[in-house]
Model the fold of this input.
Amino acid sequence: MAHSVKLKAGDTFPSLDATLLDGSRVTLGKPQGEATWQAVFVYRGKHCPLCTKYLNEIESYKQAFSDAGVDILAVSGDAKHQLEAHLEQLEVSFPIAYGLTEEQMKTLGVYISLPRSEKETDHNFSEPGLFIVNEHGNLHVVDISNNPFVRPELGALTRGLAWIRDPENHYPIRGTLDY
Done:
């Protein structure tokens, strides 16, 4: 059985695109506006109530991300109609993209699950992943999980990012030792 390749801290983040609801393409890891970093939240999809809760929680930390100079993008393997339906449960103002392919999920090294039934969803989907890409296009922080119950606590994450981004702290990318 083939094993998925996991992105390593410090790696150049792969160039992957997804689609926003207005039909425009967005490149994962390319910050928008004033931000020089981007947090890419890969989520399971509309079928996951924990994803809905987490996405809404991200919104409440939007200012803390912004203060740290970190842009937010969320993306899933859902289709356009699934994202449109999901937005009825979401209260977010950051961009959410759809159409992440299984090949792109493999490139990111996220865990991929089969739906338990057609009622859950109609496609294989990614388990949660967080990729924080710095101003050089390198993966500065990575967190992947094989289930929806384990995700970064957003208060600790945003405080940590603010600390990392403070030039006085000289904090390097951690976890880069190859073995």
In short: The first strand starts at residue 17 and ends at 20.
